[in-house]
């Protein structure tokens, strides 16, 4: 059997050659004058939507029906070369040699004191950028993409620790350091104004077997103000981030045969780093459209990304038909590189009739047009009517006209009952046969031929797959396969049977397709605190999902979900069992929950210190920060999100018997005995009252909370799922009212407003302002006080915007009134990030202020500075902060904190 397998593999390796892409067509190689291959050069079949790009070896291949064609070869920095060819019933060969582009300089550049001509070119191009986006009414295209990702080097520690796993990955998944992982995709893509993209994957092939999703550059346009989070050179704010230099002009044939003038503009960032590009952009004179570009940037983890676009005229509109992205760098010690290429062939292309291409743009800084329009001349007028009256507009007037056009289009969409808050509607569908296409089928679709290394990688992947398939050739292997399938079925069946091991690890038993029993092992949550000692907590829940409403295959709305269960907790120190039961029902965005039992809670319901972190600080550092009280309770909570989830409402009614607790022993000892520390009592210290002690009492509590966005939130839709855009959220207003009854008697009202918005590229301002008061404080116990998000440990956790860094957890809790303010500014460039090398490492700076007023707080203030990326490339998820404390404008001290950036600012 093994000998037969080897013979078959040897036969495949000798006979596997690329198939031809059809019965007739064109192939060849594109080189420079020195004979060097030009990788990813554009090959355009003039007068047709067809085209391709060369591979990394400079070779191209394209299927064409018999006939005569004009073929245009393009490469950035080289003169275009047009050749005629006649295709017969077979493949013809047509090689091309490109010469470097000869540029001529404009006379104005040589005159002393004149502005660089790049600026008038860019002002016109920027003014017309949105115009070019709106030119395309809709299109359909076949898109071929290919990506290659190569791990160049791994840290020595990783290679030593995972040597066995790496060998298995090479054997099973075709992964090896230095060998590229390939992914090819052919998709049918459609676009409709203003924001709808539809993509259907009809073929996908990967040398590793995984599907590679498009990255953030996919379907992005440099006519947008930003692309992948970086400022485009055509952004209205571009002059604040870039300088431009004119490098010369060249001429080449246009879409109708008439020569077009193309200017080369050097893009120079004022401060290079994350969020900006550098490189070259080519602008077509008079139309001010992008001809091509070659730019590079760096992302937030220090990976360098280069971008190349070559545009081709499609019905007079210059579209980026050939795109190439490359990335390289080191992250967490892993050195890697990769590229992503994309080639579009249009089958349908409709131009917006309102946007004709013969509009002239005058730069008013160089010379005003013959007629300048006022706002009243533009307001309410149709775009095409204005264009019929005059052909030349100032850059300002053109921007105003486009803005008015979009305003009218938005109103028309509202009149058609369309959701104008949706700024992007994407969907992705994968054909059921996409992963099963044959090599012959692939060769008929592939628009970029494979390189020798890529063919070798695919052969190995196919060989690995063949090994698995050949094993079923003999009867014995067939029986073995059947037995394995039966064993797998039995294994799945056994997973729903009870076993002793499941008691230790936890398990989910699928009872039916809609119901499940979920068991959480007590060993999964082992904790320690000075009130309970060591604890074990386990849970058992039954979940039943009722019928779902399928919007599409990617999104399902839950019409009903039931959860019934309980949680038990054993306290080794108190030698008691506590716990609670929970029953809930959720219908779409409304949830009703009933819970009750006996459990221990932190005085601050927001849990300023997590139980896990408190366990560490207590056992290792002799600091028992968590302060707990006991509550016997019955709680009913209802929550809903009406108005398309723009408003959130929560109401609860709870009856509770609350008791103060003490440490379970007086002579508690930590794992490490610190000489200058000792465990503190469980009773918190507070500056407003002499003691926080309270008697065991009953309380009936009504708690109502409402929150809403102050403005329309914009959304994107992905496969039917609405996702709020965090970069464009409106301020969030939250109002909370609490009423205490029975043996407590108080009314508490508070309101807060929070917002996060961009102040520049990679820069944000985050704030949260809150204020409240006890309107009635006839009987208030410490659990009912207003508590604040303090922190006394060197590791900072919680929301980085609204959490104090040095404030003791309960020192300024109040039963009177309060006001607090939190402001955090994130900077792409501030102090140390003024240095380019620091920005390239991915470091980021923050300034923050936290303020608290209560009758006893003496205007408590924290002013701090933070640096994200504690150790670049090694510990990029952590930040270090230095904080100063102030009270009544008097300096109190300095502190340091280490935190995580994983949930930074949001």
UniProtKB/TrEMBL annotation:
InterPro entries (alphabetical): CarboxyPept-like_regulatory (IPR008969), DUF5686 (IPR043741)
Pfam family, one: CarbopepD_reg_2
Keyword set, alphabetical order: Coiled coil, Signal
Coiled-coil ranges per UniProt: 391-418
Keyword Manganese: no
Signal peptide positions (record): 1-21
Gene3D superfamilies associated with the record: Carboxypeptidase-like, regulatory domain
Domain of life assignment: Bacteria
Protein name listed in UniProt: Membrane receptor RagA
Species this protein is from: Spirosoma radiotolerans
């Amino acid at each position: 059997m093994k000998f037969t397998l080897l013979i078959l593999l040897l036969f495949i390796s000798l006979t596997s050659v690329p198939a031809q892409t059809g019965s007739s067509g064109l192939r060849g190689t594109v080189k420079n004058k020195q004979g060097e291959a030009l990788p990813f050069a554009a090959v355009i079949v003039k007068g047709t939507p067809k085209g391709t790009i060369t591979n990394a070896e400079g070779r191209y291949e394209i299927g064409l029906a018999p006939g005569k064609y004009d073929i245009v070869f393009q490469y950035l920095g080289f003169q275009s070369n047009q050749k005629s060819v006649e295709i017969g019933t077979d493949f013809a060969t047509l090689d091309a040699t490109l010469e470097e582009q000869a540029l001529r300089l404009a006379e104005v550049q040589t005159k002393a004191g004149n502005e660089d001509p790049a600026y008038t070119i860019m002002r016109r191009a920027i003014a017309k950028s949105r115009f070019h986006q709106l030119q395309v009414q809709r299109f359909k295209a076949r898109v071929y993409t290919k990506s290659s990702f190569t791990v160049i080097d791994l840290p020595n520690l990783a290679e030593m620790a995972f040597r066995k796993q790496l060998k298995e990955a090479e054997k099973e998944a075709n992964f090896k350091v230095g060998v590229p992982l390939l992914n090819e995709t052919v998709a049918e893509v459609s676009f409709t104004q203003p924001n709808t993209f539809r993509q259907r994957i009809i073929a996908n092939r990967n040398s590793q077997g995984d599907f590679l999703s498009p990255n953030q550059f996919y379907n992005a346009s440099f006519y947008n103000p930003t692309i992948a989070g970086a400022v485009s050179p055509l952004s209205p704010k571009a002059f604040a981030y870039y300088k431009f230099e004119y490098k010369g002009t060249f001429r080449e044939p246009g879409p109708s045969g008439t020569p077009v003038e193309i200017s080369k503009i050097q893009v120079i960032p004022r401060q290079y780093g994350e969020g900006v590009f550098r490189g070259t952009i080519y602008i077509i004179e008079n139309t001010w459209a992008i001809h091509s570009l070659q730019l590079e940037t760096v992302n937030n983890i220090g990976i360098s990304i280069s971008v190349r676009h070559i545009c081709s005229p499609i019905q007079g509109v210059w579209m980026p038909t050939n795109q190439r992205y490359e990335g390289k760098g080191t992250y967490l010690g892993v050195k890697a590189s990769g590229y992503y290429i994309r080639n579009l062939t249009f089958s349908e292309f409709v131009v917006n009739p309102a946007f004709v291409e013969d509009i002239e743009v005058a730069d008013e800084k160089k010379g005003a047009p013959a007629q300048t329009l006022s706002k009243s001349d533009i307001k309410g007028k149709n775009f095409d009517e204005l264009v019929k009256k005059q052909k030349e507009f100032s850059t300002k007037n053109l921007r105003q006209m486009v803005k008015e056009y979009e305003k009218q289009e938005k109103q028309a969409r509202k009149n058609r009952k369309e959701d104008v808050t949706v700024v992007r509607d994407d969907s992705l569908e994968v054909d059921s046969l996409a992963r099963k296409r044959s090599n012959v089928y692939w060769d008929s679709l592939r628009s970029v031929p494979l390189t020798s290394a890529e063919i070798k990688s695919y052969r190995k992947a196919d060989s690995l797959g063949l090994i698995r398939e050949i094993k079923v050739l003999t009867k014995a292997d067939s029986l073995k396969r059947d037995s394995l399938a039966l064993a797998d079925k039995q294994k799945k069946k056994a997973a729903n049977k009870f076993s002793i091991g499941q008691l230790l690890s936890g398990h989910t038993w699928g009872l039916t397709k809609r119901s499940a029993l979920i068991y959480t092992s007590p060993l999964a949550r082992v904790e320690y605190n000075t009130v309970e000692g060591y604890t074990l907590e386990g849970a058992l829940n039954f979940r039943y999902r009722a019928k779902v409403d399928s919007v599409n295959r990617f999104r399902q709305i839950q019409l009903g979900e039931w959860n019934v269960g309980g949680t038990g907790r054993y306290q080794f120190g108190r030698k008691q069992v506590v716990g609670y039961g929970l029953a809930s029902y959720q219908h779409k965005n409304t949830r009703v929950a009933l819970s009750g039992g006996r459990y221990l809670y932190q005085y601050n319901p927001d849990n300023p210190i997590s139980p896990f972190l408190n366990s560490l600080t207590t056992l290792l550092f002799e600091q028992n920060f968590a302060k707990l009280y006991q509550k016997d309770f019955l709680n009913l909570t209802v929550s809903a999100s009406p108005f398309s989830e723009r408003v959130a409402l929560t109401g609860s009614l709870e009856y509770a018997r609350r008791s103060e607790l003490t440490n379970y022993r007086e002579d508690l000892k930590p794992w490490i005995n610190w000489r200058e520390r000792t465990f503190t009592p469980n009773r918190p210290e507070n500056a407003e009252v002499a003691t926080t002690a309270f008697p065991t009492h009953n309380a009936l509590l009504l708690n109502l909370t409402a929150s809403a966005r102050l403005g329309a939130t914009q959304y994107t839709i992905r496969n039917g799922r609405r996702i709020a855009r965090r970069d464009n959220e409106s301020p969030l207003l939250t109002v909370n009212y609490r009423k205490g009854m029975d043996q407590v008697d108080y009314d508490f009202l508070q309101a807060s407003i929070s917002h996060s918005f961009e102040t520049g590229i990679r820069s944000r301002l985050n704030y949260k302002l809150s204020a409240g008061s006890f309107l009635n404080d006839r009987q208030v116990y410490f659990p009912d006080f207003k508590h604040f998000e303090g922190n006394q440990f060197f590791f900072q956790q919680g929301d980085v915007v609204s959490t104090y860094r040095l404030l003791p957890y309960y020192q300024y809790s109040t039963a009177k009134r309060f006001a607090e303010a939190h402001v955090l500014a994130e900077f792409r460039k501030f102090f140390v990030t003024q240095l380019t090398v620091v920005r390239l490492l991915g470091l980021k700076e923050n300034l923050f202020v936290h303020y608290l007023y209560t009758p006893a707080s003496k205007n408590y203030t924290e002013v701090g500075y933070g640096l994200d990326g504690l150790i670049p490339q090694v510990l990029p998820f952590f930040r270090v902060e230095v904080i100063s404390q102030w009270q009544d404008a008097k300096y109190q001290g300095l502190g340091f904190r280490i935190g995580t950036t994983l949930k930074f600012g949001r």
